[in-house]
């Protein structure tokens, strides 16, 4: 039995550890995340981890190794959420925990919706969505499921983060959230 991983902020400073996570993931796990064959993660992860206004979280095992990542990436008035969990850590609720934390971040931001893309038939994602405490809308287009929720529903349906757990906010939007919290 694994000790429950600790969820922390991550970013460009953890590039080598996030690349290593990708190296430990099976082709199936990577396909489920990216929906296509991807080049060397050292080519695309730096851009993702430096994207302005994004929130990136990592789950670290007891030894400090990153075993999962979650991203919340601005896309106009929406934000895209994406997860990657190392194969040996799947089916333990880690993706659900990351998604919950990212949902809390989205509810505090300026976005109207949060969405994610999944391949039709992805049982793990379907299970996460079924357990969601908020209404998740879904649309299937050519075998790709777009699942989305309104951030106002997230704000009403998810517990509010306290100041201590909000420290992992990153980016411009998160900074404004922390400033407003410190004035309260």
Q: Terminal Cα separation, in Å?
A: 41 Å
Number of helices: 8
Q: In CATH terms, what is the architecture?
A: 3-Layer(aba) Sandwich
In terms of per-residue confidence, which ranges show pLDDT below 50 for 5 or more consecutive residues?
162-184
Over the alpha carbons, how many angstroms does the gyration radius reach? Answer: 16 Å
Strand content: 25-35%
> Might you state the CATH topology name?
Aminopeptidase
CATH superfamily: Gcn5-related N-acetyltransferase (GNAT)
> What structural category arises from helix and sheet content?
alpha+beta
The counted number of beta strands is 7
Strands in their spatial order, largest beta sheet: 1-2-3-4-5-7-6
Report on the architecture of this protein.
- The chain is an alpha+beta fold.
- The protein has one domain (6-169): Aminopeptidase.
- The chain has helices spanning 15-24, 27-34, 41-49, 94-108, 123-130, 151-157, 163-166, 171-183; strands spanning 6-9, 55-60, 66-75, 78-85, 113-119, 137-141, 144-150.
- The termini are far apart.
Write the layout of secondary structure elements.
Elements: E1 6-9, H1 15-24, H2 27-34, H3 41-49, E2 55-60, E3 66-75, E4 78-85, H4 94-108, E5 113-119, H5 123-130, E6 137-141, E7 144-150, H6 151-157, H7 163-166, H8 171-183
Parallel strand pairs: 4-5
Antiparallel strand pairs: 1-2, 2-3, 3-4, 5-7, 6-7
Descriptive tags:
disordered C terminus, 184 residues, 40% helix, 7 strands, Aminopeptidase
What would you say about this model in short?
The protein is an alpha+beta fold. Helix content is 40%, strand content 26%. Mean pLDDT is 83; it is low at 162-184.
